[in-house]
Amino acid sequence: MLKNYFTIAMRHLMKRKLLSFINIFGLSIGIGFCLLIAMYVSNEKSINSTIRHIDQQYIIKSNWKNDNTAPATTTVGPLAKVLKESYPSLIENYYRFDPLTAIVPSGNKQFREDIASGDTTLVSMYGFPLLAGSKTRAFRDNRSAVVTESFARKFFGQADALDKTITIHTPKGKKEDFAVTAILKDMPYSVLNFNSGHDYQVFVPMESDTLFRLLHYGDNWSIVFVTGMIQLKPGVDPNDITRLVPNMLESNAPPFISSGLEVELTAMKDYHLKGNNGIIQKMINALSLVGVFILLMAVINFINISGLKGA
Fold first, then answer.
1. Residue 2 forms part of a structural domain
2. Which of 75, 101, 46 is nearest to 229 (CA)?
């Protein structure tokens, strides 16, 4: 039976070759575009999906009475750390980072790199996959560096760069050597680059921040340019945490911060889609509609041309 159907179909195709080609080509193009759109949408929605305990991860966002005080995606330097230390029964872990730009030489070449100076909880909190290094102790000391696979290949010509040394030159003329103690597998880490859109590939401990800053950002309650993220214990309501912040700010921060700042926790699991006024989500919705329209037009075109062939 199937053989007969196949034979009849081939006869129809060969009878009007040009119309058959146009018909099949048009449908194939429509399906192809839809598949490309579906792949893009799936990729955007999968960003951060592999992060450990993603449902419990939150970004500390700042709502300032004066919008010019600081970006909404940064907060007071010590806040995430002190919240964890003060309420260990509510908060599982925390991670803060401060974006830096510095020169990192490799042989006769010099590269301007975006560097994240942050807490040593980077790997243990998010469960990022490693090519090399310890998952529980990615940073051995304050002169350790965690780098991505792409960075290792660019600088050392191979992914296996464990225990190799990189030298970071700061804009102030200082330089310091860091030993590579862990290598991250390449993946879309929007959890790290959402703040400024930079592609961070080098991570150093915040405790070594005096190399780059005159003031230690992580301990200074007057600094409001540190990105802070926390992981809540299972079942903890983020609103329970935000209600604790005003008293903490009043006790530690200067008046212009304690009186002008309102903190909110934004879920990390959909921040990539909903951040920046939901621009990614809006684009995905628009592309999805375009994909449906293209597929519909391709099907209608296929039916119409098939009708011409049968006439």
1. no
2. 75
Cα torsion angle, 270, 273, 277, 282, sign = negative
Q: How far is CA 182 from CA 145, 163, 236, 275, in A?
A: 7, 8, 32, 30
Question: Tell me, what amino acid is at 300?
Answer: I
Give the β-pairing of 202-205 and 144-148: antiparallel
Cα gap 166→177, rounded to integer Å: 6
246 is a domain residue = yes
Task: Tell me the three state secondary structure of residue 188.
Answer: coil
**φ, ψ for residue 268 (rounded to 5)?**
-75, -30
The pLDDT tens digits of the residues spanning 221-263 come to: 988 889 999 999 999 999 999 999 999 999 999 998 989 999 9
In sequence order, what are the residues at sequence separation of 6 or more whose Cβ sits closer than 8 angstroms to the Cβ of residue 71? Answer: 62, 195, 225
Report d(CA 174, CA 255) in Å as an integer.
34
Specify if 13 maps to a domain: no
Helices 79-86 and 245-252: crossing angle in degrees, nearest 10, is 110
- Residue 1: strand, helix, or coil: coil
In this prediction, residue 8 carries a pLDDT of 54
- Ranked by mean pLDDT, the top range of 39-48, 62-71, 81-90, 192-201 is 81-90
- pTM here is 0.80
Q: What residue has token string 């800053």? A: 213
When divided into structural domains, the chain yields a total of 2
Question: What does the block give as tokens for 143?
Answer: 């002169």
